[in-house]
Every structure is written in C-alpha cells, then in structure tokens.
Amino acid sequence: MSMPDADADDLIRPIRKPTRAYFLVAALAGIASVVFVAAYILQLSQGMEVTGLSDWGSGGGSTWGLYIGTFIWWVGIAHGGIVISAAVRLLKLEKYEPVARIAELLTIGALSMAGLMIVVHLGRPDRVVWSVVQAYPTTVHTSPLAWDLTVITLYFVLTATYLSLTLRSDVYRLRDKLPDILDPLYSLLLFRYDTDEDPVVERMAWWLALAIIVLAPLLLHGGVIPWLFQLTPSMPGWYGGLTSPTFLSAALSSAMGGVIVVCFVFRKVYTNWDKVIPDDVIWGLGWWMGIFALIFIWLQLQRMITGLYAPPLDVETVMTATAEFWLYWVAMLLMFLPLAYVAFQHFGILKFSERGMLVAAIAVVLGILVEKTLFTVEGLLYPATQLYENTPGNYFPTWIEMSSVLGTTGLIILFFLLVSKLIPIVELKSVEHGGHGEEEAVADGGVETETCAEGAQEGGD
Question: Which are the contacts of 165, defined by CB distance < 8 A and separation ≥ 6?
Fold first, then answer.
C-alpha cells in the first residue's frame, strides 16, 4: 500500500521541526568548516609557503593546484545547477520540479564557494581589491580572468533574481504556516507583492531560463571558464578545442551528482520527504548524470588518442605524463563505475537503490574534482618552453589545501541547513500537482515499486 502524496506541511517541516539528524549533519559540517578556517588562519600568518604551491620554473612546482581545481569544481557544479533549474522551467519538466529550487540554491552556494577559493588562493584578502577590483576597468577588454569574474557575477545575479521571483508566491501562500519569528524576513520578501504579478513572474522566469540555457554553453563552462586555459598555446595540456565541451560535460554531470546528494540528505533527515522528492526523480537525475558522464569519458578518450598518437613533442610529453599517473585513472574509474551502475539499472540488470545512487553521485563529484585538479597542475608542470630547467617540478597538496575542499563542502551543507530553516526549498506547485504515482514512475522508465508489481501480477492473472 503506497504512502499518501506530499503536501504543504511536508514542505515547511524543515522550517518548524528540526530533527536529531539535522543537528548531527550541522555538527559535522561545522567541524569541517572550523578546520578550514583554522588552516586559512595558519596560511595568513605564515604565508603561502605552508601550501604545496610554488613558483613555476625555478621553484620547480606549480603555482596553481588544488585551490584552482576546487574553484573550477565549484563553478562547474554551480553552472550545471542553474542549467538544471532553467531546463525544468523552460521545458516544463513537471517531474523534476521538486529539485528546481534545490538546484538554484546549489548554484548560489557553489558560486559563493568558488569566489571564496579565489580569495584563499590569492594569499591575502586585500589582493582582491588591488589585483581584481582596481584593475578590472582596464583588463575587462582583454583578460579572460576579467571575463571570468564578469560572467560569474552575472550568473549570481541572474540566479538570485530567478530565485527571489519564484519564491514570493510560495511564501505568500504558506505564510500562515510559517513561523511568526521570521516575519521581518517574509515581509521583506513580500514587499509590494500582489497575486496579479504571478503570471508576469512566470513569463519573466521563462525568459530568464531561456537566457541561462543559451548563455551556459557560450559563456560559462562551455566558454569563458575553459577559455582561461585553452587559449594559452604555451601550455599544451590546456590548449585545444576539446577543453570547452569537456568542461561543460563535467559541470553537468557533477551538478546532477550534487543535487542527488542534497536530495538524499533531506529525504533522510525529514519524514515523508521521499514523497516530496520521489524515487523516480532521483532515478531520472542519475540517468542524466550517467549520460553526461558518458560524454565526459568519450571526450577524455578523444583527448588521449590525439595526445598520444603521433602528436607534437610538447603535447606528447604532457599526455604521456597524464597517462602514466595512476590518479588520473582513479578519476576515470570514479566516472565509469557510476555510468555502468546507472546503465545496469536502466536495462533492468540492477534494481533502483537510493544508497547506490548516492554512492554513484559522490563518485562522479569526486572524479570531476580529481580530474580538474590534475588538468590544472599538469598544464603548468609541462609547458611548451621550460624557462629554468629541463625536468618538471612536483606538486602534492598539503593538508592546508585539502582542508579547503572539506571546509567549503561543510559551508555548503551549513548554507542548505540554514536556508531550509528560512524558506521552503521545494516549490509548492511541485506537490500541488499531486505527486508522481508509482505507475507514472514506471512509465517514465523510473523505479519499480511493489504497487506496480502487484498491479502487473493481477493483470497477468
């Protein structure tokens, strides 16, 4: 017998009734964040020498490392997240409406973490003013770094606008169920709100979604971000036409994985949230994650073949180093195994498993992080022209740098936990549609349920 569909009370439960699991997750995320802050304070007091980064050339190492790899990782998750939300609104994918706002929040949080990684990488926070803000007017015309800053800011504003517009109606309709102590916040969100604006907001959200879908492959992880690397011919590991589609496929697959992880946490922390975010939604996200992982692996194959079969000497050097490094193949394995798992589910070899999909999502997210960090480092270690020595230096991230991954992940978790105490993180219309019945899930190629199995048996009898 199936459980009743989710309703508005389920959406506001995270706001009104925290659970033990909520406080446990918050405590773990808080510990991770404290470790990150302590490591950053140590870096500020003793300088960048406490990291594994060093000057390129005479320093025999890499000036960019895990910090920049983590920056690319977070930016990719952010850009993929807003594409997910935009696709739901633009194509009216009602099945995925429960994750639209989660994807928007993931975009805002991930972009914030990406910006934080740049501040950490600069060594001193004041360099943000002197090296970035002050120089921006004179560099925006020619510098891919300035373009990067511009499009990230643009997408942050677009996403925040997008989120605030669609949130107003939900807050208005749920106001009687929301805690009175947060009334100042809700009054600010509902400033001059009128129900007549809802159709206008729907049209505005549609056009914003269209702009995001169009700009994503042109300016974000299919454009400006990879241009930082692929327009540098002196770095053969970066230069080339495959960098943009590789970055885009990595962004979309890691964003799908990130949304699955967030959905899993809320489904476990709160009662009946497996009806707010049904199994078929998780299954569908996993399927698309597998598709983008397949594209990513295929592009890696193209990169390897062209880089190892009769290439120029400088290209051969960097690609041979990549092929001989065991960690690269670990990253590829972390992408391939989830792809195989999702494929086996699709073809009925394996049944749907919530925990199995979680493990697959985490593997994809980690695989992208490892690959992007290796891409960044090896691009610097093997330039076309060695300035000071014939052999490249070495790089391995210190615990200071590793804490940045742990800490920013903890901050993202705390961000979601905090926001979930202020606003509904799933849109009201996603439960007003009556949920997704078990028969619909199977028709969509989703999750096989006991109810459907019984129905099929009765039909056979």
Answer: 201, 204, 205, 208
Would you state the structure tokens that stand for residue 260, as one six-digit string? 């699955």
Region of 242 on the Ramachandran plot (φ > 0 left; ψ -120 to 50 alpha; else beta): alpha
d(CA 382, CA 148) in angstroms, rounded, equals 24
Of 313, 295, 301, 316, residue with least CA distance to 251: 295
Q: Buried (b) or exposed (e) across 36-51, using 16+ Cβ within 10 A?
A: beebbeebeeeebebb
DSSP codes, 208-244: HHHHHHHHHHHHIIIIIHHHHHHT-TT-TTT-STTHH
Which domains does the chain carry? 8-383+391-449 (1.20.1630.10)
Q: Which residue has the tokens 């643009």?
A: 154
Place of tokens 């405590």: 27
* Cβ–Cβ under 8 Å, residues 444 and 284: yes
In this predicted model, what pLDDT tens digit does every residue of 328-351 receive, in sequence order?
999 999 999 999 999 999 888 999
Which whole-number Å values give the CA distances from 428 to 66, 90, 276, in the listed order?
39, 18, 10
Instruction: Check residue 260 and give its pLDDT.
Output: 95
Q: Which amino acid is at 279?
A: D
Is the CB of residue 93 less than 8 Å from the CB of residue 101?
A: no
Cβ–Cβ under 8 Å, residues 425 and 14: yes
Separation of alpha carbons 322 and 331, rounded Å:
11
> At which residue do the structure tokens 């960098």 appear?
243
The pLDDT tens digits for 360-402 are 999 999 999 999 999 999 888 888 876 555 556 678 899 999 9
The answer to whether the predicted template modeling score (pTM) of the entire model surpasses 0.85 is yes
What span, in angstroms and rounded, lies between the C-alpha atoms of 262 and 259?
A: 5
Give the per-residue pLDDT at 455.
Answer: 39
Q: What is the rounded CA–CA span in Å between residue 422 and residue 413?
A: 15
Q: Give 383: exposed, middle or buried? Use CB within 10 Å, 0-12, 13-18, 19+.
A: buried
Q: How far lies 333's CA from each of 243, 300, 326, 327, in Å? A: 20, 12, 11, 10
How far apart CA 423 and CA 111 sit, in angstroms, is: 20
pLDDT of residue 459: 42
- Say how many C-beta atoms besides its own lie within 10 A of residue 201's C-beta: 16
Using CA atoms, how far apart are residues 269 and 254, in angstroms rounded to an integer? 23
Q: What type of residue sits at position 294?
A: L
| Rounded Cα distance, 32 and 292, in Å | 30
- Buried b / exposed e along 111-140 (16+ C-beta atoms within 10 A): bbbbbbbbebbbeeeeeeeeebeeeeeebe
404: nearest Cα among 131, 100, 38: 38
